[in-house]
Structures are given as C-alpha cells and as structure tokens.
C-alpha cells in the first residue's frame, strides 16, 4: 500500500510575569489538522482515508506564597474525525464521523517543607464528552467526569543525592481512539471510563560533572479500552477488555563538562493485559519489546576567533 499523511499545526504562546509573586501567567492556544490516505498499489483501491482536527487551549497562573508555588488553571480540547476504510471484506467496509471534547481544571502545590524536603500535591477535574455523528458510531453519546489526584515527596539525603516517591491516579473518559480503526470498529455505547493508578520511585545523584539516576514505576489501568475482533456481523467493537499493567524501570549514568555530555542508559517496560503480554493488535497501549540500551553523546564544536 501507498501511505500518505500530512499534518498542519498552529500554536500561539503568551507569558506575562510582572514583578508580582502572585502572577506568572502562561497561555497556549493550538490547532492541529491531520489528513491520511492509504491506497493499494495493485488495484488502486483506497483502503482508508480521513481527517482529524483538534483545537484547544491551556491557561494557567503560578502564585508564589512563602515556601509554596501554587499553579492553577483550566484547559480544553475539542476533536473531530471523519474517516473511512475499505481494507476489510466488503461486509465490514465502513465510515465514521465522531467528535470528542474534554474540559479540565487543575491545581498543583509545590511546597518546600525544609531546605532538603519538598512536597507536591495536586488535583485535576476532567469532564469528557463523546458523540458518534455517523457511520459505525452513529447515535452513540457518552459523557463522564472524574478526579485525578497526585502527590510526591523529594528528599535531598546528601549533597547531590535526591530520593523521590510519587503516587497518582489518572481518569480518562471515552475519546476518539484512532482515525483508521474508528471506521472499522463499532461503538455500542457501553464503554466506561479508564482509571489508572501510578506508583513511582526515583533516585538521582549529581556531583561535579558526574550524574546518575534511576526510576522504577508501576501502572495499572482499570477498564482498559481496546479493539475486540468479532468477525460477523461486524468486524469488531470498542470494549472495556480488562486491566492493563505496565511495570518498568530506567537508569542512566553520565558525565557533563562545558557543553559536552556523554551518557549510558537502559530501560525496560513489561506490558500486560489481564496477565497476558501485549501484542500489536492491542491498539491502545503498546507492545512489550524487551530491554533497551542507549548511549548518547551531545556536544558543541568550539569556534576559533
């Protein structure tokens, strides 16, 4: 197949930081349009095509009060999709028109308890709306809202040595999952929102130009939304298929001097769905790929005068 994709992005950013500890305003407005087309070389048949549009904004302010840095704001995103696919047997050919939006409000407090101990806590509220306006999702309307709290603690145990522990819950309502498969898999209106628990531990050490850091994490996603193949009378459905889990770690050591930086790292993530390893057909989360090693060298050549 010949595949073609194009994306146009427009973003505007604004910052206002007067000589006032209560005001440090940041604003972002953006718009994205993505078009795709997949065409079979042998027959010329268009396997799939569509357009995905997304617009949104984020408005926030940070107020510094004694040892507190309080950030609060609102954000919004609106998505629209029109797509079609003919890649399957003719009985499953389909098209779709969908829209989805999410409005959020959040607050995050970074608190310096002592010179060596820091605490951060936050909460955000999200309100999701999803609507199927045509095709395989026609007539479906799903709305839900939820809270996402988080907290973390950092401790500088020794000069340059920092320990960190963090816990967060994340709420995600029903959204437009993916452009091509959205014209293939049917919404039956029964989807429930996903909720994730995230636990993370980290350690970092930096002295002179030497640095080392490591992080271990665990994430569990309840009511994980995935594409489930059926066969007939439709190709498949979007369904809550169980609990997904991600366990992993990453570590890096290196040295930095002037504008030169050398580092070596390793990371690994073990992804599973109801205890079984993820594969490519699990569209929403990823695939277990094993341990990855990485060496990185960044530098700047000095110019003669």
Helix content: under 10%
Give the mean pLDDT. 92
SS strand fraction: over 45%
Gross geometry: globular
Q: State Rg.
A: 23 Å
Oligomer: single chain
* String of helices and strands: EEEEEEEEHEEEEEEEE
**Tally of contiguous helical segments:** 1
- Straight-line distance between termini: 54 Å
The structure class reads mainly beta
Main beta sheet, described?
A: 14 strands, antiparallel
- Low-confidence stretches at least 5 residues in length (pLDDT < 50)? none
Total beta strands? 16
Commentary on this structure:
By secondary structure, the chain is mostly beta strands. Helices cover 1% and strands 69% of the residues. The chain has 1 helix and 16 strands. The chain has one helix at residues 179-182; strands at residues 2-16, 25-39, 46-65, 68-85, 94-112, 117-135, 141-158, 161-172, 194-207, 210-222, 225-229, 236-240, 244-257, 260-273, 276-277, 292-298. The strands form 2 sheets. Strands 1, 2, 3, 4, 5, 6, 7, 8, 9, 10, 13, 14, 15 and 16 form a 14-stranded antiparallel beta sheet that branches. The protein is globular and about 65 Å long. The protein starts with a strand and ends in a 7-residue tail after the last strand. The mean pLDDT is 92.
Question: What's the helix and strand layout?
Answer:
Layout: E1 2-16, E2 25-39, E3 46-65, E4 68-85, E5 94-112, E6 117-135, E7 141-158, E8 161-172, H1 179-182, E9 194-207, E10 210-222, E11 225-229, E12 236-240, E13 244-257, E14 260-273, E15 276-277, E16 292-298
Antiparallel strand pairs: 1-2, 2-3, 3-4, 4-5, 5-6, 6-7, 7-8, 8-9, 9-10, 10-13, 11-12, 13-14, 14-15, 14-16
